[in-house]
Design a protein that fits this description.
Shape: globular
Oligomer: single chain
Order of helices and strands: HHEHEHEHEH
CATH architecture of one domain: 3-Layer(aba) Sandwich
CATH superfamily of one domain: NADH Oxidase
Number of strands: 4
Structural class: alpha+beta
Helix content: 25-40%
Distance between the termini: 49 Å
Strand content: 15-25%
CATH class of one domain: Alpha Beta
Bound molecules: flavin mononucleotide
């Protein structure tokens, strides 16, 4: 049995995966990841998201061209386009939360993930048949990590001091 890591220890080792093995993720695993992500919190518990699962390789390749840093979608086993109910600040906040939970829950199955910001939104909506009024600006790539998968940049994180203020701004 593997050693159980604390969440904080695990998170220190975790990184966004952009290089995937060709092995396909089974549909049951995709559903299990979605089932966990359903537990994400949302404003007034409105759960204002639809998980548009994309497994078709041609669609993934087309979508990968619609963001400047979305290339990793092309080699993903599947992607989830995060489609929100309406274009609003709080809906976008909720989509961000569920994107995080989706990626964390994937790791339970040894599956890596990375967000792809979609820049050509209108074109992407046409590609995926998403109604114009829906909130859509990001997809998440998923797949078993390639054995050479590495963080894009070993950037680490800013220091606690740089990120934290107490009681007042200044
Ligand atoms: C809102 C958001 C948008 C992102 N967009 C992209 C993207 O378009 N392409 C990409 O490769 N990574 C994207 N990322 C992933 C970030 O680059 C990554 O989370 C960050 O560099 C930390 O990486 P690490 O966990 O591997 O250290 C995005 C992340 C977030 C939260």
């Amino acid at each position: 049995m593997g050693v159980m890591l604390k969440f904080s220890e695990w998170l220190h080792k975790h990184f966004a995966v952009r290089q995937f093995s060709p092995d396909r993720v089974p549909v049951e695993t995709i559903l299990a990841i979605v089932a966990t992500a359903r537990r994400a919190q949302s404003s007034k518990n409105c759960q204002p998201w639809t998980f548009l699962v994309i497994r078709n390789k041609e669609t993934l390749a087309s979508l990968s061209l619609l963001g400047d840093y979305a290339w990793h979608l092309a080699d993903a086993s599947f992607a989830i386009a995060l489609v929100g109910e309406r274009q609003s600040m709080w809906n976008s906040f909720d989509l961000g939360q569920v994107a995080a939970v989706l990626q964390l829950s994937a790791w339970e199955y040894g599956i890596g993930a990375c967000i792809a910001a979609v820049f050509q939104v209108e074109e992407a909506k046409r590609l995926l048949h998403i109604p114009e009024e829906r909130n859509f600006f990001a997809a998440v790539s998923f797949g078993f990590p390639d054995e050479n998968a590495r963080p894009a940049r070993m950037g680490g994180r800013k220091s606690i001091d740089a990120l934290t203020k107490w009681e007042r701004w200044e």
